[in-house]
Write a structure and sequence with these properties.
The protein is an alpha/beta fold and 142 residues long. It has one domain: Response regulator (Rossmann fold, 3-Layer(aba) Sandwich). 56% of the residues lie in helices and 16% in strands. It is built from 5 helices and 5 strands. Strands 2-1-3-4-5 form a 5-stranded parallel β-sheet.
């Protein structure tokens, strides 16, 4: 599984690079750097995207992501207070799967890894469904 982390905080990028259980974790420090990564490497399996960054915001990048990859799972991450309902609504309306808050370190890391696991399981189920559909065709052709 390939994960893209976009956050202007080098500490968050470093922690997530070490703590996310995935075969590949690519980090970008800005929306523009993330856009370049997406254009050169293609879509990852999941994106963790900081809401507020210098330059373009995560929400602005999200609009660009949705134009090219409408089904790419994107989870917003933020240092804002959990009670910020307007921010959560804006992130969800932009197309985010959910908003993960950075305030409580253990809960933050736990939510990140649960999100990665959820996407991995969905991909496994999708792959198995595809195999189930192609197997009868192979038998029929023989």
């Amino acid at each position: 599984m390939k994960v893209l982390v976009v956050d202007d905080d080098s500490g968050i990028r470093s922690i997530l690079r070490r703590r996310i259980d995935a075969e590949s974790v690519v980090c970008a420090k800005s929306a523009d750097e993330a856009q370049a990564v997406l254009e050169s490497d293609g879509a990852p399996d999941v994106v963790f995207l900081d809401v507020r960054m210098p330059g373009r915001s995560g929400i602005e990048l999200m609009r660009d992501i949705r134009e090219t990859w409408p089904d790419l799972p994107v989870f917003f991450i933020t240092g804002s207070d959990e009670g910020n309902a307007a921010l959560v609504e804006e992130c969800l309306q932009a197309g985010g799967q959910s908003v993960i808050f950075k305030k409580d370190y253990r809960a933050f890391i736990d939510q990140i890894n649960r999100s990665v696991d959820r996407i991995a399981k969905a991909e496994d189920n999708f792959d198995r469904a595809g195999e189930m559909l192609t197997e009868p065709r192979r038998r029929w052709r023989q």
